[in-house]
Amino acid sequence: MLTSDSSNDNALLVFDDVWVHSNRPTTIHVNHTDDNIFKDASKTTVNSASKNLFSNASHSIFNKLTRKTADRTHNQQVTDEQVLIKAASGQLAQGQLTVLTGASGSGKSVLLRVLAGLSPLATGNIWLNVDKNQQQNIHETSAIEWRTQVALLAQHPQLIEGSVLDNLQLPYSLHANQHSSFNIDWHIKQLGFLQRSQAFLQQSAAHLSGGERQLVNTLRLLQLQPQVLLLDEPTAALDAETANNLIQLLMHWLQAEPHRAMLWVTHDTQTILPFANEHWNMQAGTLNG
Ligand SMILES: Nc1ncnc2c1ncn2[C@@H]1O[C@H](COP(=O)(O)OP(=O)(O)OP(=O)(O)O)[C@@H](O)[C@H]1O
């Protein structure tokens, strides 16, 4: 078991014995719980002699009984608990790129969301070594504070209406980022890496391609200088050249400061793996480092 003291000196983000459950509501058809009512109802149906004995009053009782039976055979929502992540432990080291692969549905995105503080863990621990003297535990840190340091680049970027520039400036209108300010020069430099001119900033977000939306999403997140970047298939919607440019940009970001780490989920092992320091694999919720 990893403890905050036993983790590697270089470890930036450490997680230990993380379990994640889902409480997914499932609709089932219930028609077995009210056998007695069924029996009673069929008795009433079959026994026409009794029915005749009880004129209108008995007829209404009969109707009530059959209606009740129908109500009880309605679909019912039950909670079906599943284990999505089983006892996952690992460390993301400073300056390193860790690549996470695994079959579809194996739990890679769930793990990223949990590490980013966007989904709850059932048990286990996650902590961030902010610097030599400061350590933060996910259970004792506010969600906003955690997410400014451990950022998730989601698979499907959400952009607002307006220009690329409006989208890039958006985070600075949030209370959490009130102490930092938008740096246009930084963006122009990054656009150079991505082979885009400054005119890109004025483009309407509504007319961007899927790949361009991902570029905007990446810049919007990187400008806030997180320490740990969690990437969920960021190059999936990009052509080979743009994907390469984005990889260069992200590797440059990783190496620009010592206190940074990246965890990169991908199915495209050929392009990313050559850059990886570590390779993890996920199989049916079990993480193999
Ligand atoms: N919020 C949720 N509630 C319940 N189940 C979920 C939830 N999110 C994901 N799952 C389930 O967890 C399993 C793992 O999903 P996940 O998105 O992590 O897969 P993945 O490995 O990232 O797949 P892919 O490579 O296709 O993106 C799936 O069976 C999915 O249906």
From TrEMBL:
A molecular function (GO) held by this record is:
ATP hydrolysis activity
Keywords assigned by UniProt, alphabetized: ATP-binding, Nucleotide-binding
Gene3D superfamilies membership: P-loop containing nucleotide triphosphate hydrolases
User: Taking every annotated instance into account, which residue ranges of this chain make up the domain ABC transporter?
Assistant: 67-289
> Per its UniProt record, what Pfam families does this chain match?
ABC_tran
Enumerate the SUPFAM superfamilies for this protein: P-loop containing nucleoside triphosphate hydrolases
The record's annotation in PANTHER family points to: ABC TRANSPORTER I FAMILY MEMBER 17
Q: What is this protein called?
A: ATP-binding cassette domain-containing protein
